[in-house]
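ok so for the tutorial part 2 we go from a plain amino acid sequence to predicted C-alpha cells. step 1 is just haveing the sequence, like this:
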Amino acid sequence: MISLITEFRVAARNLKRNRNRTAIAVLTVAGGLVAYLLAGGFIEWIFENMRESTIRSQLGHIQIVKPGYLEKGIADPYSYLLPSRSEEFNSISQHPNVVSIAQRVAFSGLASLGDTTVSFIGEGIEPAQEAVISDQIHIRLGKNLERSDERSVLLGEGLAKNLTAKPGDTIVLLVTAANGTPNAIEVVVAGVFFSSAKEFDDTALRLPLKLARKLMRIDGASSWVVLLQDTKQTTQVVAKLRSVLSPTDFEVIPWIDLADFYKKTVVLFGTQVSLMKTIIALIIVLTISNTQTMSVLERTTEIGTMMAIGSRRSEVLRMFVVEGLLIGVIGGFTGVLVGYGIAEALSAIGIPMPPPPGMETGFTAQILVTPWLSLDALGLAMVTTLIASVMPAWKASHMNVVDALRCNQ
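step 2 — the prediction. this is what the C-alpha cells look like for a chain of 409 residues:
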C-alpha cells in the first residue's frame, strides 16, 4: 500500500513537470466524458419517458389474461374472458405494491359519423381506476370519461380526425357481439385524447366498461391491468403473482413483453450510444498515447539513468502506466462532475423538442445522468487511458540502457 501511494505521488509530480500537456490530456478525457454523459443522459431520459408513457397510457405494469389470449385472443376474444369479479382480483388489489387494478374489455368494429365510416380498436374501461393507471393519456378536446354509466366515448386524436368528429357529436359503433350477431349503439363523443404513440391514437377509442359489456353482450373482462408503485417492482410482483395464481386459469404478463416498439427503440438508440462511446474511446486512446509517447521521448535520458542505477524494467513500465491511469482518474472525475452539472442546468431550463413525426405536440426534454451512466463514464476514462499508456510504457521499459544514456549528447 505504501509503495502504491508512493508511485502515485511520483506520477503526480511527473505530470506536473509539463503542466500544459497534462492539462490538454485531462481536458481531452473530461471533454469526451461530458459529451458521452450528455448524449447518454438524453437517451436515458428518452427511454424512461417512453417507458412510463407506454405503461401509463396503454399497458400498465402487469396484465393478467387467460392463458393463450395473446396468441389466439384476437381471432376469438370471447373464448378468453376473465370473470368480472373473483377472489383473485380482490387479492391482487390488496397487494402492498399495487396502486390500482382495473378491468378492460378489448373489441373492434366500425365507427360512423355521417357518411364517414372507419375501423377502430376499442377498450371498455373503468373510468375511476383508469384515471390512475392511464394518467399519460392527455385530453386534447372535451373531457375524460368520468362515470361508469355514462353513454359517452373517448376518441384517439387520429381516429377523431378520420371521422371528423368533435366533442358533442353523436357517432354509431357497430361490432360483432359475443353471440355472432351484429350490434350497434349510439354514443356521444366526450373528448379527444392523445398519447405518446401515434399508432394507438389513430385507431383507439374508449367506452365505459358497462356500456362496452352491453355492446358486446358479455359479462367479463379481456384483461386485468395492474399499476405498481414503481416500475422496478415489476419483476418481483410478476414472480409473486405467478406463484399464487393458477397457471391454467391466469397468465401474468409484464409490460416489457407487450412493448415491442419500446424494445426496438432501446436497441436502436443503444447501438447509437455504443458507437458514440467507441468513437470517444478512440479519441482518448490516441490523445493519451500521443501524450505518453512525447513524455517518454523527453525523458529518455532519465529512463536510462533509472535503469542504470538498478530500477527494473517492470518499475519503469509501471511508472508510465500509473501516470496514464492518474490522467484517467483526474479527467474522469472532472468530466463526470462537469457533465452532471451541465445536465442538471439543461434539465432545469428544459430542452424544447419538435413534435415527433405524425404528431402535433412537441415536448420538453431533459438529461438524466444515472449512477450507472456515471460509473460507466469513469470506467471508460480509466480503461482507455490504461490502454493508451501500455504501448509507450512498454517502449520506455525496453529501451537499451546505453542508447538511452547517450540520448541528447
